From TrEMBL:
It comes from Pseudoxanthomonas mexicana. Residues 36-215 form the FAD-binding PCMH-type domain. It holds the Pfam family FAD_binding_4. Belongs to the FAD-binding oxidoreductase/transferase type 4 family. This is FAD-binding oxidoreductase. The keyword Coiled coil does not apply. InterPro entries: FAD-bd_oxidored_4_C, FAD-bd_PCMH, FAD-bd_PCMH-like_sf, FAD-bd_PCMH_sub2, FAD-linked_Oxase-like_C, FAD-oxidored/transferase_4, Oxid_FAD_bind_N, Vanillyl_alc_oxidase_C-sub2. PANTHER family: D-2-HYDROXYGLUTARATE DEHYDROGENASE, MITOCHONDRIAL (PTHR43716:SF1). Keywords: FAD, Flavoprotein, Oxidoreductase. Its cofactor is FAD. It comes from the Bacteria.
Amino acid sequence: MSDPRLQTLLDAAPGLRLKTDPADLEHYGRDWTRRWTPAPLAIALPATVEDVQAVVQWANAHRVALVPSGGRTGLSGGAVAANGELVLSLERMNQAIDFNAVDRTLTVQAGMPLEAVHNAAREQGLVYPVDFASRGSCAIGGTIATNAGGIRVIRYGNTREWIAGLKVVTGAGDVLELNRALIKNSSGYDLRHLFIGSEGTLGVVVEATVRLTDPPPPTNVMLLALPSFEVLMQVFAAFRERLQLEAFEFFTDCALQHVLAHGAQKPFDEVHPYYVVTEFAIGDEAKEAAAMAAFEACMEQGWVSDGVISQSDAQAAQLWRLREGITEALARYVPYKNDVSVRISAMPAFLAETQALLGEAYPQFEVVWFGHIGDGNLHINVLKPDGMENADFVTQCEQVTTLLAASLKRHQGSISAEHGIGLVKKGYLESTRSADEIAVMRGIKRVLDPHGLMNPGKLFDT
């Protein structure tokens, strides 16, 4: 332990574990972006809220920057420690604390994996409905820090809607209990919502009380093949009008080919340019008939070229793999990712403009599109050609992201729908937030993190 300050940290928090091996520094110092070289001071692994508080107080005393860390599945550089920061990993704080059957809430430590939260809710006959493909590795605290969305936002909303209360340690080292799971609470500012989506820049979420709900009704999954990009929103409107949608996800044939190469089963004999996987409530003959009516209406209009409906849970999982397997299938290309959103009503015009923009700007790159069209969220993945230097690739991509940010500003959208701002997107924050809004955000940070030590350089420069 070469830095003498670390011994004083262990003295202040005897239950703390520290890691300083080079392999650990690399592992904990980065997220899925892989764009920055990790260089943390050390990795601190607390076991209790008191440990976290002691770490933050020590950091303030020694002016050491902190990077809160969950599952590090982020895609915006929000969990990167590249400048000698102390990584504060909550992976040891991974237990369910309390279930309240009357309130239908579950209180968990922030390092608990999302899938474990799902399982704990299911044991009580209920569900925590926020869900996405990285459920097995992401931590609930990280999903709160980014207000994560996922595949069922169209039905259940973002993480924010399901957080009943939070316990946080602020950047000043104070422990706050926020909202305490109240349904109604009009007693001033709801500080809980400041920490949701704050990307660890205000403090550390250490515990969360999440709301649970009834399991969804029986559902079915349908995969649709579309002949063109332009009919996408008509198909969405036709299905939303007739069905209770749980999800409505879009992807291109380019995305499908990567997933098939990764081991998924081919759904159709013919190749189609665009696809939608949608999940919807069934349970009686009328709902099943409505699903077929929606499909047939789209076929008659020429909006859908082919389709398949799941006949079993196994087949439903196979269809979902075609969408959920995209990120994993693309990982080896280290894609440059854009994660944007607009209002659903603005989506047709934005899609047309963006498609033209990217077709002109990226003729030399393979661009993979997919997204949560039902909630206005589009993912754009640009794949780095083999042999191209990463720095040159990023530079070219960022030039086009500047144009994309301008388009989002015109359509009153957001440069980050669900991945956060982090290091990757902070240069484009002004396309989403006004100067006055950013000034207020900076002021809030100064109050809760007076020395600017919490995840510095993320979201905006202090």
